[in-house]
Amino acid sequence: xVTFRFYVVSTVAFxxxxxxxxxxxxxxxxxxxxxxxxxxxxxxxxxxxxVDSIDAKNAxxxxxxxxxxxxxxxxxxxxxxxxxTLVVAETGLDAASLEDLxxxxxxxxxxxxxxxxxxxxxxxxxxxxRELVAGLxxxxxSTAPTELRTALWEAVLAPGADGAGEGGATSTxxxxxxxxxxxxxxxxxxxxxxxxxxxxxxxxxxxxxxxLLFEQSPLAELADAGLVRLQRVEGAPENTAAELLVAAVTGxxxxxxxxxxxxxxxxxxxxxxxxxxxLGELHPSGEExxxxxxxxxxxxxxxxxxxxxxxxxxxxxxLPGRVATVLALSELREGRSGSYGLGPDVDGLLPPWQGx
Length: 356
What we know:
By secondary structure, this protein is α/β, with parallel strands linked by helices. The protein has 7 helices and 8 strands, in the order αβαββαααββαββαβ.
């Protein structure tokens, strides 16, 4: 039975506990608040230090990128003299990276007209396209698309592989042209240029000089038909080249049905003609300098070609990758080949320095 004494004891105990809590709380309140304030100050200071460290790293990274850009011309200078390079790429790749590759090749001393963009129609799935290509190279219309493309690229490269074309045209002055502003994947395959060129067959090529292939048959006819697009990059130098080289580029953003297939066929045709070629892979913007197990997966030249005439580079979206492409072409001229970039099983980021 609950008595009055029980209520009295309970009430006294309650207020006693409350008093003890107030006393203890008043004593510890300042210490707890000071401790929390110190911890907060420490966290704020650590955050400030982290931000300062990130800013310093970003500034260092920007400086290193400027150094790479400024030193790139010295890295490739005079490594490609007396050459002309045909740059071939599948549509859908970053045009700015390919245009910069053209500039790096020119800095090395190579004559480069621009970029040959392969339209998805080059798969020759349509009968009309197969008949067109077969007519250009004198092959039966029943020939398989793969064989037609292989023979076609051999016909395109043959004048340069011989060192001088029959009835081709050569440049006698620098071309004044405007860069192509149409996106590679826009579906337009017409040749766009404001430069004045001679028609194929107007003037014979000089002995020992690789002809300007943009003006040669069958490449010019392919552009007229829309199977390729010829993008002339402003600032092409005078053509005095005696050796043809090829840079063929693909990537995961290519809009062709089978990325890597067509440029692989270009590489195979070039190697069959003893023309050195670099197969390049260009990844989407934002992946610069990022190693990946997927890199290099699209770089597969046809079987049976001379591997000593083909090198691969898997990071053309990055300036060092474009420099590596130039240096890889240069070392191919000396009989050395390799695999470069950021993917698995590469020989290095760049071809090894050979010394003077």
